């Protein structure tokens, strides 16, 4: 399975808002993301739904500063 297909599958979440946001993000930025950014996106996708949603909505901060640029992109969706 290609990396993009795997990422699209992993964007399907239990939380509808998160599901829609992640799908839109991939539609908009998929072709622009380099390998390192795709790996960071996979790291974000490994987080539980509530934690990921809280980070994206700025209710919680991530301790991984390398994820900040990607989170900022997600927040613009």
Weakly predicted, low-confidence segments: none
Shape: globular
Q: What is the succession of H and E elements?
A: HHHHH
Beta fraction of the residues? under 5%
Subcellular location: Cytoplasm
Main location: cytoplasm
Organism: Nitrosomonas nitrosa
Keywords: Chaperone, Cytoplasm
Descriptive report:
The chain has 77 residues and is mainly α. The mean pLDDT is 88. The chain has one domain: Flavinator of succinate dehydrogenase (DNA polymerase, domain 1). Helix content is 64%, strand content 0%.
Per-chain topology:
Elements: H1 3-10, H2 16-29, H3 35-45, H4 49-56, H5 68-75
Short description:
Keywords: Chaperone, Cytoplasm. One of its GO terms (biological process) is succinate metabolic process. This protein is mainly α and 77 residues long.
Keywords:
single chain, 77 residues, mainly alpha, DNA polymerase, domain 1, 5 helices
């Amino acid at each position: 399975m290609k990396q993009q297909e795997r990422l699209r599958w992993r964007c399907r979440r239990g939380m509808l808002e998160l599901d829609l946001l992640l799908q839109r993000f991939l539609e908009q930025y998929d072709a622009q993301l380099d390998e390192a950014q795709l790996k960071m996106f996979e790291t974000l996708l490994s987080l539980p739904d509530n934690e990921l949603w809280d980070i994206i909505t700025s209710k919680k901060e991530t301790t991984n500063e390398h994820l900040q640029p990607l989170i900022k992109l997600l927040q613009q969706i």
